[in-house]
Amino acid sequence: MTARANKPGRPRKTTDNRAILRLREEEGLSFSEIGARLGIGRSLVWLRYRQAIASKNRHKSYKREENSTEVVEPHGGGGSDNG
User: Fold this and answer.
1) Are the beta carbons of 32 and 62 closer than 8 angstroms?
2) What confidence tens digit (pLDDT) does each residue in 36-70 have?
3) Residue 56 domain-assigned?
4) Quick check: is 83 in a domain?
């Protein structure tokens, strides 16, 4: 089994996504400016930015669920309210 090599001139995707998120949110750069810095096109920057945001939101959601103290009662338990 061979490792997949990155295409020349392109940073790794996960590193790229983090860098794009940081450059956009912390430095306020445009997608075109970020693309120029990373050597990729504006549309790819936009796509990776959206992926990074979605990943960030999923991660926050998972942590929220992990820290939740809410107890969920199973359906169909004891008594009958059908009546």
Assistant:
1) no
2) 999 999 999 999 999 999 988 887 776 666 665 65
3) yes
4) no
* Separation CA 37–CA 46 (nearest Å): 14
d(CA 1, CA 12): 20
Nearest Cα residue to 31 out of 15, 42, 44:
42
Tokens 């790819």: give the residue: 44
Q: Does pTM surpass 0.70? A: no
CATH of the domain at 46: 1.10.10
Whether 6 maps to a domain, the answer reads no
d(CA 26, CA 21): 8
In degrees rounded to 5, what are phi and psi of residue 30? -75, 165
The reply to whether 77 falls in a domain is: no
The number of domains in the chain is 1
Provide the b/e sequence for 20-32 (b: ≥16 CB within 10 Å): bbebbeeeebebe
Tokens representing residue 39 in the block: 């050597």
